[in-house]
Amino acid sequence: MTLVEELQREIERWMSSRRNGNLSVLSRLTGVSYPTLRRIMQAEFTPNLETVMQVVSIILDDKQGRVFLCRHFPDFAPIFKKQEEVGYRMLNLAGLLQTLTKEEFMVFNLASGQGVTMARLHQKLGQQADFAIARLTAADLIEVQGEVVKTKIKNVSLTNIEEVLHHMTLAISCFDRERVNDYGSQYGIFSDRLNQEGIEAAHTAMLEAKKKLVEVFTDPKYFGDELYITVLSSSYMD
């Protein structure tokens, strides 16, 4: 069975298993345009790896998705298998995670670890919490266990620059203004014209900060209950 044939079959299976399963819904969940999905279903072209990953991350569970990708993209099989070994979920990185709303971003992050209660989500987000939960649940990123919402993911790795920048924007939009200058709520912005030596010095400072933050975020002795997020960014403006 060719890539397109198997993809068509799995898309059909996904749509038939859902009350509102159709290409329009799948397009919203995956970030793949409706015309592209329609062309796949009509066997008009063979999609590339990125498009296939976007689709299978929604229509198949993690294990099935990896098997599918390894079968049709054998050159990338070692990468997928390595990610599985270290606990990374195969995510719809170029689709759903690039289009998360602020509310969905908050639910997705608050549901990490031991999870978050429905009452807490409604306290922070009101009715918007229900819409966010529905979309994230449909994408198999979270699950509701009684009154607790939890992620179904152990680790998340964002590598596409658009994904990273989108999540950085969302993180800043969630800044806690009620706890400004607390240990966990720091902010600052620096801008000036620098020579090459100055740029290299700033680069070194950023790398050192990133290294220390990685050590903190990966050391079990620091794991706890407070949800904490840090954003680092530098760029040329001219």
What's this model, at a glance?
This protein has 11 helices and 3 strands; from the N terminus they run H-H-H-H-H-H-H-E-H-H-E-E-H-H. The protein is mainly α. The protein folds into 3 domains: 83 residues, Orthogonal Bundle (434 Repressor (Amino-terminal Domain)), CATH 1.10.260; 84 residues, Arc Repressor Mutant, subunit A (Orthogonal Bundle); 61 residues.
Structural features:
238 residues; mainly alpha; 434 Repressor (Amino-terminal Domain); Arc Repressor Mutant, subunit A; 3 domains; three-stranded antiparallel sheet; 11 helices; 3 strands; 53% helix
Describe the structure in your own words.
The chain has 238 residues and is mainly alpha-helical. It has three domains: 3-85, 434 Repressor (Amino-terminal Domain) (Orthogonal Bundle); 91-174, Arc Repressor Mutant, subunit A (Orthogonal Bundle); 178-238. It is built from eleven helices and three strands, in the order H-H-H-H-H-H-H-E-H-H-E-E-H-H. Helix 1 (3-16) packs parallel to helix 4, helix 5 (62-72) packs antiparallel against helix 6 (77-85) and helix 7 (102-110) packs across helix 9 (128-138). It is globular, with a radius of gyration of 20 Å. The protein starts with a helix and ends in a 20-residue tail after the last helix.
